Amino acid sequence: AQSVTQLDSQVPVFEEAPVELRCNYSSSVSVYLFWYVQYPNQGLQLLLKYLSGSTLVKGINGFEAEFNKSQTSFHLRKPSVHISDTAEYFCAVSTAPNTGNQFYFGTGTSLTVIP
Amino acid sequence: AAGVIQSPRHLIKEKRETATLKCYPIPRHDTVYWYQQGPGQDPQFLISFYEKMQSDKGSIPDRFSAQQFSDYHSELNMSSLELGDSALYFCASSYRATERGSYEQYFGPGTRLTVT
Q1: What is the mean predicted confidence (pLDDT) over B86-99?
Q2: Which of A13, A23, A99, B68 could link B49 by a cystine bridge, Cβ 3.0 to 4.6 Å?
Q3: Nearest CA of chain A to the CA of B19: how many Å?
Q4: How confident is the model at residue A104 (pLDDT cuts 50, 70, 90)?
Q5: Contact B41 A107 (CB under 8 A)
Q6: Rounded average pLDDT over B31-52
Q7: If you measure CA to CA, which chain B residue comes closest to A49?
Q8: What CA–CA distances, in Å, run from B36 to A51, A98, B79, B84?
Q9: Contact check, Cβ <8 Å, B43/A44
């Protein structure tokens, strides 16, 4: 079975400061990794994904994440946050290409950017 | 670009009533997933369909059923509603292909169900 742990439920950070949102996963098979962002009362928007290849993945809005297989981590980073980055961030894993391809989500990290 | 469409966006029902949520996937996507997100919680996988057949089942209660139709849209039917069913229900779609780059799920805006 797969599971995802987001170590920080809430992360406050000042505007223009760097931020790292941590994600660790557990799986006995190869996984695909994703970060989604959810703004208040909205759906989930894909920030970035790791499927294979380079372990450093760049996404939208200046976010990037690094896949570390030995540490089973996929931490999300941004060098300088904006007020508009305030949202809920979810890390997710899937084990496609098997049938199903259901996503397993972490419990989310609430990022609050302080002016 | 076309996105996943869910209807209705908001729904208020009373206990023991029935609700039907609809999902229209992105054109040419063949796989639909349903997730339930309770207040302050992460999305939980309910069920998925591939080419109109159920492909995977998660924590979907027996009171719920779902299907995917010939035009690939999907409906989630919820009966004997309980207060605990109040949640945001997401539909996601994807195109299942042999290439590893095709497993991204695109999420709809969700249907917020309130059971009173």
Answers
A1: 82
A2: B68
A3: 20
A4: confident
A5: yes
A6: 90
A7: B104
A8: 25, 22, 15, 11
A9: yes
